[in-house]
Amino acid sequence: MSQVALVLEARGQHVLKEVPIHEPSAGLMQVRVEAAAVNPADVMMFDDDRGGFVQGYPAVLGWDAAGEVTKIGENVTRFKVGDRIAFMCFPSSTHDGGKSHTARGAFQQYVLADQRYAVKIPAGADYASAASWSAASTTAAGSLYKHFALKEPWLPGGEGAYKGEKLLVLGGSSSVGAYAIQYAVLSGFTVLTTCSPAHFDYVTSLGAASAIDRSAPDAAAQILAGAGGPLGLVIDAISVPATQLLATQVLAEAGRLNLMLAPDPALRPAIDAKKIELLWGMGLEGWYANEPLWAAAEGHLASGAIRFNRVTLLGGGLGAWEKAFEMHRRGEVSGTKLVMTPQQHTL
């Protein structure tokens, strides 16, 4: 049997074509992809792949997906055929010793998923929203529990462990920012965040105690007033020069800053003057491969302690990739995750 896939034939060259449906090996599941989210990382990998993620061509990109389990490989015990799941994809990774690099990316109609990095979708939740989960949630959790080395809320005594302490999330309406707010609240923090005023209601609904206009000329003063002084922990979910500058202005001496992108060289003197500790939140180096997070996620999602991101569905099946990539390049994605529906595509 065959399926439609968006195949990366070479750097910067996507082709929609029919390819075989992949068969699951040990520990993997075959999943019918009902929704595939588009991340900025997908665009970066397509345009220049400076991070070296693409292991070989042809490949299939896409980190986030949700769908129905259609087959299971040996040793798969957590899921069964028919389960509705959200799961992390591993674009360009191989499952057959390097013979192919197309089976693990989200941008196709059937993909192979690792049972360790998948979660059942709560009853009533839709596939599109669930597709926002994997990359952004694990990046956000990694900021807190890997890079800041905080106690995970799924460990005994971890939930609410930081009650009374304050934390700032820059870009709280972004995909990573929204999950960072929710995990920080689960850990007990009083969370301050920045975003556009259009998203104030959204971020406060996620648990943020206060929201500051990201463009306000006195944003730093508002943050310091709301926090009662400089902060020890800041997650910059946007990490452009403007947000990095704001972080250096509100961090305390020897504070810790988790970035998604490389630090702006122009800010090095300010960073060094305050002895700010920079922590890296993206890429393989920043990935938080914590299986207990995934095991606990089913309960957190079912209870509403963690909510999926807001999403924007794109028409046109996998053919929507060009529109999605261009929207990311132009900075037109705000407060939502772009999602494609692979099953709608026919050649």
UniProtKB/TrEMBL annotation:
<dbReference type="InterPro" id="IPR036291">
    <property type="entry name" value="NAD(P)-bd_dom_sf"/>
</dbReference>
<dbReference type="InterPro" id="IPR020843">
    <property type="entry name" value="ER"/>
</dbReference>
<dbReference type="InterPro" id="IPR047122">
    <property type="entry name" value="Trans-enoyl_RdTase-like"/>
</dbReference>
<dbReference type="GO" id="GO:0016651">
    <property type="term" value="F:oxidoreductase activity, acting on NAD(P)H"/>
</dbReference>
<dbReference type="Pfam" id="PF00107">
    <property type="entry name" value="ADH_zinc_N"/>
</dbReference>
<dbReference type="InterPro" id="IPR013154">
    <property type="entry name" value="ADH-like_N"/>
</dbReference>
<dbReference type="Pfam" id="PF08240">
    <property type="entry name" value="ADH_N"/>
</dbReference>
<dbReference type="InterPro" id="IPR013149">
    <property type="entry name" value="ADH-like_C"/>
</dbReference>
<dbReference type="InterPro" id="IPR011032">
    <property type="entry name" value="GroES-like_sf"/>
</dbReference>
<feature type="domain" description="Enoyl reductase (ER)">
    <location>
        <begin position="12"/>
        <end position="340"/>
    </location>
</feature>
<protein>
    <submittedName>
        <fullName>GroES-like protein</fullName>
    </submittedName>
</protein>
